[in-house]
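Subject: Protein record for review, amino acid sequence with backbone structure tokens
How to read it: Take the token row as a discrete description of the fold.
Enclosed: The protein record, placed directly beneath this head.
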Amino acid sequence: MFSKSISRHMTYKNVRRYFNSVLNNETLASVISVECKDSIDRFLDRYDTFMFDCDGVLWRNDHITPIPGINNAIQKLQSLNKRILYVTNNSIVSRDSLQRKFHSHGFESPLENIFGNGYSAAVFIKELLKVSGKVYLVGGAGMKWELDQVGLESVGMGSDSDTPSSDVNDLLKYRLHDDIEAVLVGFDEHFSFNKICKASTYISNPQCHFIATNSIEKGTFIGQADNRRRMPLTGMMVNAISETANRIPVIVGKPNTVMFECIKKKHDIDNSRTVFIGDSLKADMGFAKTVGIDSALVLTGVSSLKDLRDCPDLTPTYVINCFADIVT
């Protein structure tokens, strides 16, 4: 339930009026409205480690548009000697590309504080599954970079070289590797019929591991809302391969625990002094609840207060209009 509400723009009366219109009375009764500066100070004092999602939190969900003041908010946390970790489900980007993007948005982070699900998948495959052979990668350059960093050889990135066909004789001639020990699926702009065929063929061998970066993000609107154009996301690609092969993958991304275990390999985490800041109820608030840490929902991305009606089990500890609001 809501234990605190932080907002620079919503008075106590406005918070109660809005919550009363979208939430049930039991949830409303749990909301405590506090003065802005006092609530922010208590929030900042309460935690030593701040974990951030990226898209919809540090910039808009189009991956491009800045959120004014975010750099000042991050710099404020840094001035207070808070540990800041970045934990994203975006498998398109590698840690080094995120590091450069942070710099372009006006703040810095060491590489060891950045955790993408591509990196987590690479560590999981290498260190836990002990894979030594090749990985068939349904994913892009960012994921391949992460596999390279841990010494895993991968094949499959980019457009498939075989000509697509529905003829069985042609399908039987598709070139396959004999030493694929794992199939890793993330976002792939070159996703195709051929890749479904090959990935599902590899994981039809029960000895071949099947790993996916995430499965909950299946599609989203792009461009102006009135044009109704949609972009398929990772979950659609994972499901197509999973259904074809009749196998369930291990999901390393949020809201599952693999990424948290990866974080704990590098950082000593006190769950009671850690908060996750995200824009998605299912991915971010779900991740926080799964691993046992507090959470803050920002209203600059995917989820809104109205969504809490449909996901009462994912109610965050805090709601913040925009994380830049911590700078008063």
